[in-house]
Design a protein that fits this description.
With 330 residues, the chain is α/β, with parallel strands linked by helices. The chain has one domain: 2-enoyl-CoA Hydratase, Chain A, domain 1. Strands 1, 2, 3, 5, 6, 7, 8, 9 and 10 form a 9-stranded mixed sheet that branches. Helix 5 links the parallel strand 5 and strand 6. The chain is globular and about 70 Å long. The chain starts with a helix and ends with a strand.
Length: 330
């Protein structure tokens, strides 16, 4: 590793500890930073992508990345921010000048709870404000990406979009055999038989597997019901399609999982024509950079030309706790 990269790594680690130590302060001040970086004085900056009437808008909101409740930080200025995305949807619903909403979905899915929160927020906007929500699928809108798309008034996918992957997954690592070869012993003191369920230090028992499978089956049932209600399909049909496989946008269209094939521009044209919004201004909500993100962005630009620094920092921050996911992974 070059001298500059060692310097970058040291600075990154220092910033990591500063970030962790000042988490509460950063959280309290984050709203102020957002307002400082907001150019129109509203909660989010609005970028006009098609001119039209400012009193009759179509709001485009992008979801990029894994759906998980993690905030942006000094080392990743583009990571999905769950709370901010929910607030964007809420803002579009409450804003009286917004007549329609397009969610541009590009995600392999993510957390079960986070996906359910987005789904519920979309339903809330539709029911409370009566605003139509269209979904434009990007490269990938699979598993949790499809879960959040299901309640949309219309789903539009590119023919090459990867979608589907209807199901739930939970994984853990078992390195008990490796630890034995290395002469490593684990001492576990627990209050109940199943307190260390999915422990990486031993084999899973059949009773533990049954417990987890019951939980996964329940969450899968929730996923199925979301599609039954959103796509007006039968429970049996959804379960036939929902065996975990991915579909291309063209296949999903033939199966009734999406309504139309097209791009984001096509989706904009559809919502304009179908809802008589030809004169509407099309805007996209944008985030401002918080100050520590700005520092991190410049650090990466100055010292890193590849993903080496990102990989090191992500490894330092990664949690190994197993969790149920609506996630498609290759």
């Amino acid at each position: 590793m070059s001298r500059n990269r060692w310097i970058a790594l040291i600075i990154a680690i220092v910033l990591l500890f500063i970030s962790v130590g000042s988490q509460a302060i950063s959280s309290a001040l984050s709203t102020d930073f957002d307002e400082m970086m907001n150019f129109n004085g509203n909660q989010f900056a609005e970028e006009v992508i098609e001119e039209g009437s400012a009193m009759n808008k179509i709001a485009v909101i992008r979801l990029n990345g894994v759906i998980q409740d993690t905030s942006t930080n000094a080392f990743n200025t583009t990571v999905y921010n769950h709370n901010r995305f929910l607030k964007m949807i809420e803002e579009a619903g409450e804003n009286s000048t917004v007549s329609g909403i397009i969610l541009r979905v590009n995600t392999p899915g993510g957390g079960v709870v986070e996906s359910a929160e987005i789904h519920d927020k979309i339903k809330e906007i539709q029911e409370e404000y009566g605003k139509p929500v269209y979904v434009s699928m990007g490269n990938t809108a699979a598993s949790g990406g499809y879960y959040i798309s299901a309640p949309a008034d219309k789903i539009v996918a590119h023919p090459a979009t990867l979608t589907g992957s209807i199901g739930v997954i939970m994984e853990s690592i078992n390195f008990a055999e490796l630890a034995e070869q290395l002469g490593i012993d684990f001492n576990t003191i627990k209050s109940g038989e199943f307190k260390d369920i999915m422990s990486a230090s031993r084999e899973m028992t059949e009773d533990e597997r049954d417990i987890l499978q019951t939980m996964i089956d329940e969450l899968y049932g929730d996923f199925v019901q979301v599609i039954v209600e959103g796509r007006e399909m039968s429970d049996q049909r959804v379960r036939e399609l929902g065996d975990g496989r991915v579909y291309t946008g063209s296949q999903a269209h033939e199966l009734g999982l999406v309504d139309e094939l097209g791009t984001l521009d096509d989706t904009i044209d559809m919502i304009k024509e179908e809802l008589n919004l030809e004169s509407a201004q099309v805007i996209e909500y944008k985030n401002g950079l918080e100050i520590y993100q700005f520092i991190g962005l410049n650090l990466k630009n100055a010292f890193s030309s590849d993903s080496e620094l990102d990989g090191i920092v992500n490894l330092l921050r990664q949690s190994n706790a197993p969790r149920a996911m609506y996630l498609y992974s290759e």
